[in-house]
């Protein structure tokens, strides 16, 4: 019996972040703040050394960072990843990548496979954030493995002291990776990071954050994430149908007929299984 509207492996999360999340690259988001943890207050100063939130557009800085590392894929608009749970799509990097992402609508992280093996990515997070199912789906679009799962490795990177500095650290991790440096071996000078980014905004150049080298600590954890369908992505809240013989599929990916969505039907087979009958 085909099972529609189901969850193939893990329960989906109850919270659905707003699609209007801040974008690190898209011009339409230029007037918005580069969020650093919580939503900004109405009254905000423009000085770089005092506010919790930076009101300048990060577009030029992100573009300058991308141009500085032309050999590295990624640096896509984070807004694209905010619409995946509504059926959106985003390009999967074809080369070693660095990608800054907004998760939970209030936090910035950096993902990369520069120092990972096949079907793995490293997640650089300046807070010890719990990785929910929606974030796992975003990360799966960066790899889309042919294997049944991929691994998320969480190196023990520097933890931010200020609750509003996650965006600064996400960008710092990205620039370190671009320079071939492992973020878990670095200790950034947090008190100077905002001033460094402010100067980068003014000069429209990639920021160069000051840091000192430290011995790397053991990884915080490794998370295994299952993927499904011909799109090879993780499940989050969307409709899926289970083939009677093999995997779970999105109706839009596999062209599931209406009868396949009928949970009272005896069976439904995907195209691959049908052709092998």
Automatic annotation (TrEMBL):
Name of the molecule in the record: PHD-type domain-containing protein
Pfam families from the UniProt entry: PHD
Record-linked PANTHER family: PHD-TYPE DOMAIN-CONTAINING PROTEIN (PTHR34718:SF2)
Family annotation (InterPro entries): Papain-like_cys_pep_sf (IPR038765), Zinc_finger_PHD-type_CS (IPR019786), Znf_FYVE_PHD (IPR011011), Znf_PHD (IPR001965), Znf_PHD-finger (IPR019787), Znf_RING/FYVE/PHD (IPR013083)
Keyword Zinc: yes
Originating species: Phoxinus phoxinus (Eurasian minnow)
Bias (Basic residues): 39-48
Record region (Disordered): 1-52
